UniProtKB/TrEMBL annotation:
Signal peptide: none annotated. InterPro entries: Homeodomain-like_sf, HTH-type_TetR-like_transc_reg, HTH_TetR, Tet_transcr_reg_TetR-rel_C_sf, TetR_C. This is Transcriptional regulator, TetR family. One of its GO terms (molecular function) is DNA-binding transcription factor activity. Residues 11-71 form the HTH tetR-type domain. It comes from Streptosporangium roseum (strain ATCC 12428 / DSM 43021 / JCM 3005 / KCTC 9067 / NCIMB 10171 / NRRL 2505 / NI 9100). Residues 34-53 bind DNA. Keywords: DNA-binding, Transcription, Transcription regulation. The keyword DNA-binding applies. The keyword Nucleus does not apply. Gene3D superfamilies: Homeodomain-like, Tetracycline Repressor, domain 2. Pfam families: TetR_C_11 (PF16859), TetR_N (PF00440).
Amino acid sequence: MSPRRPERRSEESARAIVRAALELCREVGYGKLSIEGIAARAGVGKNTIYRWWPSKSAVLLDGLLSVMTVDASFPDSGDVTADFRTQITAATGTIFRPDTGPHYAALIGEAQQDPELARALWDRLISHLTSAATQRIQSAQRRGQIRPDLAPDLVIELLYGPVYYHWLIRQQPADADHIHMIVDTVLAGLAPANTRPDAPPTGNSRPHPQ
């Protein structure tokens, strides 16, 4: 769902349109957001918007991406738990903040009924985050910190799923302490068996006679 970009597109009008979409969505909610309302607030005609965007969700997505810069890069300190703590806390602090979180939540909800929007969210935002996470997970697997038989996609779901559940279902973004607890718990369970603190002895060791 990339916006249509004719050669002579007026950048000033485009900025006014996405700004109007963000403002109105905050004021009236996504359900009451309309192309007519966006056009009136931006001072343009509806046809101007439809020449560049196919729907209100496409306008809002452009607006969201214009004000939300997410650093998808991962630190690699050698400590995978510390690195995921840092990255997830920083990313959620940006994505779920009050001026962007409601817009993102609205688009996620709309994407359940709009496959084109779902693809746009994936291509333009989510895939960048998961690609960086995948690389960090694979690095940890090579170092023996995460079981090598696990697909990175599964690890991502286990790490990020609870964070999204807390935000979308409980409607309360997880704080840093809760994120750290999620990361610690998940990665402890995904470590190779012989590296866990409670792992039984291996090799030729035998229990001492009583």
